[in-house]
Design goal:
Oligomer: single chain
Distance between the termini: 43 Å
Strand order of the largest sheet: 1-3-2-4-5-6
Shape: globular
């Protein structure tokens, strides 16, 4: 009983599979079945395609303009998974009117947003529109937004081409993160200041693990994004030199703080 209580308390702080115990020389059957279900959910999250029309309708309701659909140079999901490089490049051949990188117009807006399927289209379907709504609510009264872009078979760096075409100052790529055996619908936000093709990963900032209620909530993620955007605008760049200060706690007392060295024993 003491061992069960010990592990039960620890499980309250993590989604990791800890202290599962055993039945004979194997895991308990319920835990084996749960693991298989989680693995199946992760595979589905990777392979089930994004319903672009449904997401576009949700985004359009936010009043930020009609979203444009852009796809990468990866022909299908199989090629996307085998060739990450193609997921970073826009498809250049002719597409239906209103689609593709050529349909984007230079806006000069402060903020551009790309909703990318990434490695978990499910994450974007679940969290993309409400996360975008939280960002727009947090920033829309003081910064301008370009019309959103939906990108399929997309890696993060595809956003550099999109942001450059839109002429935005700061780009936010909302993308489905690689699913695991604990979470299959986690969303990430990648921030790139002055986006252009060829930006390195060290020139971006990432807000990860967005999947309420277990993960980061939309309002908190938007708060972190606001802090990073403001910092990037002051600094003139994003990446390793830009730090999230949204959780910093300032001293509220006007009294001086005196630090004294402890007496030696």
């Amino acid at each position: 009983m003491a061992a069960r209580a010990f592990w039960a308390e620890l499980r309250r702080t993590t989604q990791a599979r800890i202290g599962l115990g055993r039945t004979g020389d194997a895991l308990p059957t319920a835990d084996v079945l749960a693991l298989r279900a989680a693995h199946a959910a992760a595979r589905d999250a990777v392979h089930n395609p994004l319903d672009v029309e449904v997401l576009a309708a949700q985004v359009k309701k936010l009043g930020m303009g009609d979203p444009v659909h852009v796809r990468s140079h990866a022909a299908d999901r199989s090629e996307y998974l085998r060739r990450p490089d193609l997921g970073r490049l826009p498809f250049q051949s002719e597409l239906p009117a209103g689609q593709g990188i050529s349909a984007l117009r230079h806006t000069g807006a402060d903020i551009g947003v790309v909703l990318a399927d990434g490695l978990s289209p499910r994450a974007l379907a679940d969290h993309g529109a409400p996360m975008l709504a939280a960002l727009f609510e947090a920033l829309g009264d003081r910064l301008t937004f370009a019309p959103p872009v939906i990108a399929t078979q997309s890696r993060v760096a595809l956003g550099d081409h999109i942001g450059h075409a839109l002429g935005v100052t700061t780009l936010l790529v909302l993308i489905g993160e690689r699913p695991g055996l604990s979470v299959a619908d986690s969303l990430g936000i990648y921030l790139t200041h002055l986006p252009r093709p060829g930006r390195a990963d060290s020139e971006r900032n990432c807000i990860s693990n967005i999947h309420p209620p277990e993960g980061l909530g939309y309002a908190r993620a938007a708060q972190v994004a606001v802090t990073l955007i403001d910092g990037a605008r002051r600094l003139g760049r994003s990446g390793v030199d830009l730090k999230d200060t949204s959780a910093d706690t300032a001293l509220t007392s006007g009294e001086p703080v005196i630090l004294e060295a402890a007496e030696s024993a």
